[in-house]
Amino acid sequence: MNTLKKFQLDNKAAVVTGSGQGIGRGIALALADVGAKLVINARRESDVAETAQMVRDLGSEAIEVVGDIREIGSEAVGDACVEAFGSLDIWVNNVGGTDEKRNRTLLDTPDEIFSSQLDLNLTTAFQGSKAAANRMHNGGCIINISSGAGMRGSAFTGPYAAAKAGMLNMTETFALELAEMNIRVNAVSPGPVITEAYQEMVDVNEEKAREIAASIPLGRLGAPDDIATAVVFLSSDASSWITGQNILVSGGRTHRTVQYQDKT
Predict the structure, then answer these.
(1) Residue 153 backbone dihedrals phi, psi, to 5 degrees
(2) CB 251 within 8 A of CB 217
(3) CATH fold of 4-249, please?
(4) Which of 36, 80, 121, 193 could form a disulfide with 222, with the two C-beta atoms 3.0–4.6 Å apart?
């Protein structure tokens, strides 16, 4: 038995939505590093091109699909993957975050803001999972990037947290329904990783970042690589008997220890 080989993804074709930067880019590079071919998708053409070139620099193949997944549609992204690589084996629903530039209590949240958060963080994952499953004719893996916020109350980021909580339930349901197709569905819930998207949502300055890091048992903030390695595990044969699960990657932080404030 060669345990290390179980983590290899040679000739597997993977889609990572929202992979232009941050956690999504980290996931794409980690998958490429163990042999996967990548579909890079994000809204900004320059980000997509940069990530795709980084994948190629690792010796893997990459195609670029530029556009907001809500506008271009998951079906088109799935078709692009099959056309380029002949299969679709791994789909990572990473796109998410917020288009809202301030934090609010739920009581102060307009209906349209709540709906937009569900659309960006939950509906896209629902549509992506369907698009993936319909093209995984020989089985495959779907990984949903949720959040620690979806596992508990989350003051001032309630709509985002509600969407991520829904994603965790949807992960379990898809896992049950797709098991007979040999498609495994799991989730990874990151703790605090200071990416551009995170900054936009909670406006963390250096002082607040140090405060958050001090509250984490392992004593540091997360990095995209921390999340990416969990995704590699769940995408590989090393996790072939795991489905319907959520891995909290948070340095031991199981509840919110630092309160974000209303960003006005």
Answers:
(1) -60, 150
(2) yes
(3) Rossmann fold (3.40.50)
(4) 193
Query: Is the torsion defined by CA of 211, 215, 219, 225 positive or negative?
Result: negative
90, 138 Cβ separation under 8 angstroms: no
Per the annotation, the verdict on 260 as an active-site residue is: no
Q: Are 259 and 204 in contact (CB under 8 A)?
A: no
pLDDT tens by residue, 225-249: 999 999 999 999 999 999 999 999 9
Which parts of 58-194 fold into alpha helices (H)? 69-72, 74-85, 111-118, 124-133, 158-178
Q: In what order do the strands lie in the sheet with 37-42?
A: 62-66, 37-42, 13-16, 90-93, 140-145, 183-190, 246-249
Which one-letter amino acid corresponds to residue 168?
L
Annotated catalytic residue within 160, 174, 198, 260: 160
Among 40-44, 94-98, 203-207, which range has the highest average pLDDT?
40-44
Q: Are 30 and 235 in contact (CB under 8 A)?
A: no
User: Which residues does residue 63 pair with via DSSP β-bridges, in sequence order?
Assistant: 39
